[in-house]
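User: Could you check the structure of this?
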Amino acid sequence: MSAGLSLKGKVALVTGGGRGIGRAITQRLAEAGATVIIASRKLDTLEATARELGSLPGRVIPMACHVGRLPEIENLVRQTEAQAGPIDILVNNSATNIGQGLALAATDEMFDKIVEINVKSALRLIRLVVPRMMERKAGGSIINVASVSGLKPQPGGLLYSFTKAGLIMLTRSWAQEFGPHGIRVNALAPGLIQTDFSEYFWKDDARRTAFEARQPVRRIGQPEDVAGLALHLASDESAFITGQVFVLDGGYLDS
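Assistant: Sure, the predicted structure tokens are below.
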């Protein structure tokens, strides 16, 4: 935990908070004293994460939610407010990466599903959470987990790159509109991070070695490499930062 940095009394909602980048962010927020609601479809994974982080200063509360379904998102926000209080920090982290392959092979069904999870879920949560932040006049921090694929097309990843680019533009637009209300909106754009979600790109030793050789920092990232910056953006230490896209990729984009 950063010296002097405290989120005590703050409530955070982290989608996809049970594993990978979401879990690492949850841990850092809870270390700083926040009450963190973690949400995804798999309640058993969430419950295991909550148990593992149970000794931290902040509470971790698991809640099952399919972020592609509006009624479940609405219930998630209601239950979060009922059990923990008004939301101060929102981390839109849930994502899927279906439709890997040639661009011409992308179907309407793939398009609809990936937009629903990667973009529409964030849009819906913003619509539910931000008005309450405005009413309270206490500010707030929204962190959208995008990707370097939203800045540079991922080979074979047309739909994923498209949705992450969309999330980046939403971030910038929301920041302009919500800034006068004291609500900050920023995006993280990780490169290759070692999680179950990205295992196709690192599990094969030859593919991983070739990838690492292309970037200045000769290793793939870890979830903890992302979580520290998320903690900073969630805190008042970043009170003058909004509308920004932070690349965490070991120098990949510039190599």
